[in-house]
Amino acid sequence: MKFIIAIIKPFKLDSVREALSGIGIAGMTVTEVKGFGRQKGQTEIYRGAEYSTNMLPKVKLEIAASDDIAAQVVETIQATANTGAIGDGKIFVLDLASATRIRTGESGETAL
Amino acid sequence: MKRILCNTAALVTGAVMLAVPALAAPVAEAAAEAAPAVAEAAPAVFTPTAEMVNKGDVAWMMVSTALVLMMSVPALALFYGGLVRAKNMLSVLMQVLTIVCVAALVWFGWGYSLAFTSTNSLVDPLFIGGLDKAFLAGVNPGTFAATFSNGVYLPELVFVMFQMTFACITPALIVGAFAERIKFTSLIVFVVAWLTLAYFPIAHMVWYWAGPDFLPTAPDDYGLLWGWGALDFAGGTVVHINAGIAGLIGCLIVGPRLGYKTEPMPPHSLVMTMIGASLLWIGWFGFNAGSALESNAFAALAFVNTFVATAAAGAAWAMIEQIAHKKPSLLGAASGVVAGLVAITPAAGFAHPGTAIILGAVASAICYVFVTTVKNKLGYDDSLDVFGIHAVGGIVGAIGTGIVADPALGGQGWIDYTGAVAVAGEYDMVGQIITQCWAVGVTIAWTGVVSAVLFLALRYTMGLRPDAEAELGGLDISEHGERAYN
User: Fold this and answer.
1) Residue B42's pLDDT is what?
2) What is the Cα B383 distance to its own chain's centre?
3) Are B458 and B189 in contact (CB under 8 A)?
4) Which residues of B touch A54 (CB under 8 A)?
5) Does A51 contact chain B (CB < 8 Å)?
6) Hey, which residues 248-287 in chain B have their CB within 8 Å of chain A?
7) Which of A44, A45, A47 lies closest to B385 in CB terms?
8) Chain A interface, mutation test: which of B329, B366, B386, B390, most A Cβ atoms within 10 Å?
9) Taking the mean position of all CA atoms in its chain, how far away is CA B444?
10) What is the pTM of this model?
11) pLDDT tens-digit profile of A40-51?
12) DSSP states of B277-344 as a string?
């Protein structure tokens, strides 16, 4: 099993979610986050007082997937969240040691 | 000037520049109607009666009164509240609301009497009134207040209330200068003392006069600046310069916010600021057009000027930002709107709409420079730009009034009330501008000294600031024990 963490632009969330549903991903966790990378921050000006924000809002997706589908998940996110501009985000893949469904106690891939 | 000889025409807040008694002699119409039983030899004693009250005027003035209250709560409270950080939102709302409550009570107690009487003056009737009408003694549905027209009166209670709303909003304007770092109880003590020692005397000096039917027989019965001939239609000096200078002194003595210039302090909700600015604009129609004291063409002139000068100022600020940063901001446009409202206040009933537009745009540009550049260069922390917008815009408006009131530019000039029937005075633009500058100077000096003494006295007694931990945690929790957003 793999644990996939993707940081994407917030406005891409809906299309990524739909694309992942299309390849059989039944659930994910979504968090609004802030961070910085190579994309420059924005400048805000309030009556002449300039504030540069170097932390930009992003969305973090967390998805647990079986080994056979994990590569396809990564490809789908990469293709869907891509705008070609700096700041599109990153995808990280980790090995997942176990998964347990709380309601039934099932574990392993059946719990996904 | 068609209204020169019409004794029922509404006459704007003009000035009695030269109290030449000879002017009063030839005409005695108004006196004749008023005192039928008095012997011909003695000068008639004018007595206003209920028949001189127009129900249309009364209705308009009561609506205007409510509109001006709306400028304080909620408009100013939301305008300011949106500009502070979320942790200080309630402190600003609470300061404005409480100041309105306290000022209304002080106005009832001694404010009206000190501002709008001249008998038994505490010092000198040129500077302040007496206590004859303290706690509204003798004011009842059977007493009347003068307007700007011969033989036209308001119930005195209406005038008391209308002016009360001005006394409520003026000290509330000041809190923006030291928002996010003031001790609440000290602020309220300051407001009571400042109203008494700065607002009431200045209101008296600028606005008090005996009225068009009384001045001919009491040619010295007016406040100092009125007597000089200073023009201030709705309170550029009394309200805006007064509050703006008090704010500047306050923010200098209180000191900057912790973290000023080192950490970001962006407004927490420009949505609320937009709502507040818009309601201010609406309420300002009561403030300016209501200051005609009658429901007539001069109220309409003030109304249209309040509309177009403000529109020009809002557009001007946005255009300047478009040029300077390529991005016109909402806060900029809203700031321009307020700057325009401030600037047109003293000129509202005098200017032609065309010159009002120019005045609004010029004031907006000058305020822009003060707010964005001068403040940063000098380093004072006038958090919400009370000085940069209200004092600066007020000064531009007060001096500009001397220009736009000139009948040669379509203005309304000034009115000579020393005769039995008011007539238009001869307009001297240079002389008027000099008079306006004197009025601005007296206001700045008076309120500057009073504010400095009061703030320093409080700083060394009750203290002006909460401790650092309270300020960093936010005044909502430390001063009021609640949060704006849960």
Assistant:
1) 52
2) 21
3) yes
4) none
5) yes
6) 264-267
7) A47
8) B329
9) 14
10) 0.86
11) 778 888 998 888
12) HHHHHHHHHHHHHGGGSSSSHHHHHHHHHHHHHHHHHHHHHHHHHHHHHS---HHHHHHHHHHHHHHH
B196 — contact with chain A (CB < 8 Å)? no
Asked if A46 lies within 8 A of B375 by C-beta distance, the reply is no
Q: Is A45 within 8 Å of B329 when comparing Cβ atoms?
A: yes
CA B82/CA B97 separation, integer angstroms: 15
Picking from B291, B276, B295, the residue whose alpha carbon sits closest to that of residue B337 is B276
Which tokens belong to B9?
């025409």
Residue stretches of chain B with pLDDT short of 70: 1-44
Q: Which of the residue ranges A17-31, A75-89, B3-17, B342-356 would you say has the lowest mean pLDDT?
A: B3-17
Domain A2-111 class in CATH: alpha beta
Contact assignment for A47 to B331 by CB distance below 8 Å: yes
For chain A, say whether B119 makes contact (Cβ under 8 Å): no
Q: Does the CA dihedral B12-B17-B356-B354 come out positive or negative?
A: positive
Judging contacts by C-beta atoms under 8 Å, the chain A residues touching residue B385 are 47
Torsion angle (degrees, nearest 10) of CA B484, B458, B394, B398: 150
What is the tens place of the pLDDT at every residue in B189-203? Answer: 999 999 999 999 999
Cβ atoms of B258 and B468 within 8 Å: the answer is: yes
* Contact of B226 with B16, CB cutoff 8 Å: yes
> Which single residue is written with the structure tokens 């809906």?
A14
A·B CB contacts under 8 A: 23
Domain map (residue ranges) of chain B: 56-464
pLDDT score, position B130: 96
Name chain B contacts of A44, Cβ cutoff 8 Å.
Answer: 266
pLDDT of residue A49: 87
Within 10 Å of residue B461's Cβ, how many Cβ atoms?
A: 10
Alpha carbons B276 and B281: distance in angstroms, whole number: 9
**Separation of alpha carbons B36 and B465, rounded Å:** 63
- Planar angle of CA B325, B391, B123, nearest 5 degrees: 175
Specify the pLDDT at position B23: 35
The ipTM assigned to this model is: 0.77
B353 contacts B308 by C-beta, under 8 angstroms: yes
Q: Give CA separation, B404 vs B110, B221, B434, in Å.
A: 35, 27, 14
Residue B44 is predicted with a pLDDT of 64
Question: Domain B56-464 belongs to what topology?
Answer: Ammonium transporter fold (1.10.3430)
Chain B residues whose CB is inside 8 A of the A42 CB are none
Six token digits for residue A96: 């997942």
User: What is the residue extent of each domain of chain A?
Assistant: 2-111
Tokens of A70: 């994990």
Cα B34 → chain centroid: 33
Nearest CA in chain B to A50: B264
How many CA atoms within 13 Å lie on the side-chain side of B442? 24
Residue of B nearest to A52 (CA): B264
Closest of B227, B49, B214 to residue B148, by C-alpha: B214
A46–B376 CB contact, under 8 Å: no
Q: Judge whether A49 is closer than 8 Å to chain B, CB to CB.
A: yes
Q: Residue B193 gets which letter from DSSP?
A: H
